Automatic annotation (TrEMBL), chain A:
Taxonomic source organism: Pilimelia columellifera subsp. columellifera
Protein name stated in the entry: Amino acid ABC transporter ATP-binding protein
Keyword Transport: yes
Keyword Transit peptide annotated: no
InterPro entries the UniProt entry points to: AAA+_ATPase (IPR003593), ABC_ATPase_HisP-typ (IPR030679), ABC_transporter-like_ATP-bd (IPR003439), ABC_transporter-like_CS (IPR017871), MetN_ABC_transporter-like (IPR050086), P-loop_NTPase (IPR027417)
Transmembrane segments: none
Pfam families, sorted: ABC_tran
From TrEMBL, chain B:
Top-rank taxon, per record: Bacteria
A Pfam family hit: BPD_transp_1
Region listing for Disordered, in residue ranges: 1-22
High-level lineage: Bacteria, Bacillati, Actinomycetota, Actinomycetes, Micromonosporales
Organism: Pilimelia columellifera subsp. columellifera
Name used for this protein in its record: Amino acid ABC transporter permease
Coiled coil ranges: none
Length: 246, 280
């Protein structure tokens, strides 16, 4: 039995009196791509943010590579280095060039030399098709380019798994494709990915497993062909009907 | 101008005596110009230019102030401003971070400090530092003598204002910036230093320039600490000259000296802002 990349059990989280996560159980194996779908407010982003402790869970357990992240003695900064995260709003560092965005954590956190960091940064910019944008500032890039740069920034830290929090939701429709293409190639390279998304086509095509959440609970989980193709739960059917026929 | 033909033909219709939007705009503007011109003409006509020239524009008195007004007084004004600004900036940054701290006593202290020093006149604080500190701590020498006392006296007040400015700047940096930095494995202090503060400072450059300009003028309070011939600043220097000649021309020269500091500064900041805007 190998250790899963992410192992979540009975995870609970409330914001004030609002119960956002009501006992989530989920595991993601190494090399697996899991897409989390569901209506807004279903708790999927909160679930993702609990994995690297951007949100502190109220109860339950989250293990990443076998390490309990809620343990007060856990080296959180060390653990986060191994977990890449891509945000809906890109969050590139606005005062730094694209190259510096990719090198700053490598140099300050991983203590790589400037030359090494820049080499790795340029490799990863190449990987996402932005080799010519190294000297640009984030504000000079399109949304799609910013998001690809943000993915490259995470990849430059050589993460063991990647979290994507609605990576294409803030993009103009014509820019969604270029970001999904990068994510598709990442998945093909065997990256472990947990993706919160509204892109059903991507989930169907790339995911090994799809998890449907509603009301802070996992309603249904399984291979995309099952969950998206022939869902067993009424809530899943209803959601898919709304999403696919809007 | 050809546009006016349409409202004019409309005005011939029975009901409306009201002006068109464009006509009203033109009328408002004409009135504004007329009032402005009337004020300028009135002030110009009523002022006794002869007396004014005699009092404020005595070139011989102005010339006698040079070069000391620049080599000593202006130099000291700049030194006092820069020193108190640096002290205020460092202390203000510390206070801002304390106000944002998760440690409650830090927040209490910073809040109390800011409320206290924002409420006290700079003159009073300068006095307390100049005469209170030596009384309270007879064995303590403020580093730098009069320069240190002024930097401390003006910097303590400036720190309170700058703390609020910097705090607002830090809070204006989107939360996602900190989250992205933490996600990359940076510790909280590292993320603040490398990611949040550089962006916060770019936001607060204009208000901090304001603070610098206010400090430039506050250095005119330095006289309460008893400045000497070598530590004299612009206003005190001009005041002494005024008394000596019984003529206010030195005040005009002093005013010019302050503009010599503040105008280029505004230009510099303007340019910095434009450079920042280009990068986004």
């Amino acid at each position: 039995m190998t250790t899963p990349a992410i192992e979540i059990s009975d995870l609970r989280k409330s914001f004030g009196s609002l119960e956002v996560l009501r006992g989530i159980d989920l595991s993601v194996g190494f090399g697996e791509v899991v897409c989390v779908i569901g209506p807004s407010g279903s708790g999927k982003s909160t679930l993702l943010r609990c994995v690297n402790l951007l949100e502190e869970p109220d109860g339950g357990s989250v293990r990443v590579g076998g390490v309990e992240v809620t343990d007060p003695d856990c080296d959180l900064d060390g653990l986060r280095r191994t977990i890449g995260m891509v945000f809906q709003s890109f969050n590139l560092f606005g005062h730094l060039s694209v190259l510096a965005n990719l090198t700053i954590a490598q140099r300050r956190v991983l203590k790589r030399s400037r030359a090494d960091a820049e080499l790795i940064a340029r490799e990863n910019l190449e990987r996402v098709g932005l080799a010519d944008k190294a000297g640009a500032y984030p504000a000079q890039l399109s949304g799609g380019q910013q998001q690809r740069a943000a993915i490259a920034r995470s990849l430059a830290m050589s993460p063991e798994l990647m979290l994507f929090d609605e990576p294409t939701s803030a993009l103009d429709p014509e820019l969604v494709g270029e970001v999904l293409a990068v994510m598709r190639s990442l998945a093909a390279e065997g990256m472990t990915m947990m993706v919160v998304t509204h892109e059903m086509g991507f989930a169907r095509e790339v995911a090994d497993r799809v998890v449907f959440m509603d009301g802070g609970q996992v309603v249904e989980a399984g291979p995309p062909a099952d969950v998206l193709g022939s869902p067993t739960e009424a809530r899943t059917r209803e959601f898919l009907h709304r999403v696919l026929t809007h | 101008m050809s546009v006016s033909s349409t409202p004019a033909s409309a005005a011939r219709a029975p009901a409306p005596r009201r002006l068109g939007r464009r006509q009203r705009q033109r009328l408002t503007r004409a009135v504004a110009y007329a009032v402005f011109a009337a004020v300028v003409v009135a002030v110009g006509a009523l002022a006794d230019w002869g007396k004014l020239a005699e009092s404020f524009f005595r070139l011989d008195i102005a010339a006698a102030m040079f070069p000391e007004i620049v080599t000593v007084a202006l130099r000291n004004t700049i030194v006092y401003t820069v020193l108190s600004f640096l002290f205020g900036l460092v202390a203000g940054l510390a206070l801002a971070l304390m106000r944002l701290s998760s440690i409650a006593p830090y927040r209490w202290f910073a809040t109390a400090y800011i409320e206290l020093f924002r409420g006290l006149p700079a003159l009073l604080v300068l006095f307390l530092v100049g005469y209170g500190v030596p009384l309270a701590f007879p064995d303590v020498q403020i580093v730098g003598g009069i320069y240190g006392s002024i930097a401390l006296g003006l910097g303590l007040t400036a720190a309170a204002y700058m703390a609020e400015t910097i705090r607002a700047g830090v809070q204006a940096v989107p939360r996602g910036q900190l989250e992205a930095a933490r996600t990359l494995g940076m510790s909280h202090p590292r993320a603040m230093v490398s990611i949040v503060l550089p962006q916060a400072f770019r936001i607060v450059i204009p208000p901090l320039t304001n603070e610098f300009i206010m400090l430039t003028k506050d250095t005119s309070l330095a006289y309460v600490l008893g400045v000497t011939a070598t530590s004299i600043e612009v206003t005190k220097f001009a005041g002494d000259e005024l008394n000596r000649h019984v003529n206010p021309t030195p005040l005009l020269v002093a005013g010019f000296m302050y503009l010599l500091i503040t105008l280029p500064l505004s230009q510099l900041v303007h340019r910095l802002e434009r450079r920042g805007a280009r990068r986004g």
